[in-house]
Specification:
Structural class: alpha/beta
Number of helices: 16
Number of strands: 11
CATH topology of the largest domain: Rossmann fold
Mean pLDDT: 94
Strand order of the largest sheet: 3-2-1-4-5-6
Helix content: 25-40%
Number of domains: 2
């Protein structure tokens, strides 16, 4: 890793004010977290702020700087998803201008935009900047990820990344380029949440969902894209195997349609539980208290992986290289794009983490 003299050569102060722009979605925000730790390791006294969609603020709150811990100094919520539904309401525009005012309270030396979309690039344009500021973003798309080339016109530094690039690694490419550092690569294991925070989470799992009976296994079968789902009959076969070994199989859901699927699967698994709906904030403790999480390529499965909890990630119609958990021996990645895993493979992966 280079020292910081190359950063100063860009005209940046030794303790720069840095803005991170990663708005959504759940998994993408999680995979952007390591650059907060990377920045702090080299610039311990920098100001680090983050603009994120308001629905994902809870993902960042554990990293707020407090009580001797240095992480994110300021979380700036962005309500675009909600605002788009109410464009003609006065309150929408009042909230937007309040967001703009909050964003512009600081003049930033470095803006790191790792989403590559027009909406996130516009946030960069709204931010106040110092005269020698660096606005860095993606110069190209990566396979199977959203990208809008017009976003490049909002940067003064466009960063070329490999077309097959893990989400964590992609953020590190942009960050390293923005600060003129040698690439922070996998030789430096990514960090996500403070260990003390993760250790404390599991204590509250029973308080969040009182119906949970330890030991329990979470099965996240739902995902936004149907092709990424693992077949119901496969979940049933896995669930029966786990239930026979004394585990309560828990089938969370996020919509009425997903709840119906959870009920269908649970009907075939002894003592399976379809819990009440729970929030992202509550999901932290529920996941932390589980003996195991098994899930398809979706945000809550990735949350289990970044918490370092025993996790089996199932890939059915998305490339494993894009989001697989590579940072912990507690993670098993099975299947791949257009190559869903067989039940036996998932059972073997699951039992290897339970024994």
């Amino acid at each position: 890793m280079s020292d910081l003299s190359s950063t100063y050569s860009k005209g940046l102060p030794s303790n720069p004010k840095i803005l991170l722009v990663k708005l959504s979605s759940l998994g993408d925000v999680l995979h952007n977290l390591p650059i907060v730790w990377d920045l702090r390791a080299r610039l311990p006294h920098a100001q680090i702020d983050w603009v994120v969609e308001e629905g994902y603020v809870h993902l960042l709150e554990p990293l707020l700087s407090q009580k001797g811990f240095s992480g994110i100094d300021r979380i700036i919520p962005f309500g675009l998803r909600r605002w788009k539904k109410n464009l003609f309401k006065l309150s929408t525009w009042q909230e937007f201008f309040a967001f703009k005012k909050e964003l512009q309270e600081t003049s930033y030396d470095v803006i790191i935009e790792t989403q590559g979309l027009l909406k996130s690039a516009i946030v960069c344009s709204l931010a106040n900047k110092t005269p020698n500021s660096v606005i860095a973003g993606l110069a190209n798309a990566t396979e199977y990820s959203g990208y809008e080339s017009i976003a490049r016109s909002f940067y003064n530094q466009s960063v070329q990344v490999p077309t097959q690039c893990h989400a964590v690694d992609r953020s590190r490419w942009v960050m390293s380029s923005a600060l003129d550092w040698l690439l922070v690569d996998r030789t430096i294991a990514p960090q996500f949440y403070p260990k003390t925070y993760v250790d404390f989470l599991g204590v509250n799992s029973g308080a969040v969902l009182k119906e949970l009976k330890s030991p329990y296994v979470l099965c996240f079968h739902s995902t936004a894209r149907e092709a990424k789902r693992w077949p119901n009959e496969s979940w049933i076969a896995l669930g029966k195997e786990l239930a026979a070994r004394g585990y309560e199989v828990v089938l969370p859901w996020g919509s009425l349609a997903e709840q119906a699927v959870s009920n269908q699967i649970a009907a075939h698994i002894p003592n399976a539980l379809v819990p009440r709906a729970f929030s992202i904030e509550e999901a932290f403790s529920v996941i932390a208290g589980a003996a195991l999480t098994v899930g398809v390529d979706t945000g809550l499965t990735h949350l289990a992986a970044v918490l370092g909890k025993p996790t089996v990630e199932i890939y059915c119609d998305s490339p494993r290289w894009k989001t697989e958990g590579y940072w912990s021996n507690n993670i098993r990645n099975v299947g791949d794009i257009q190559a869903p895993p067989q039940v036996a493979e998932v059972i073997t992966a699951s039992l290897s983490l339970l024994t």
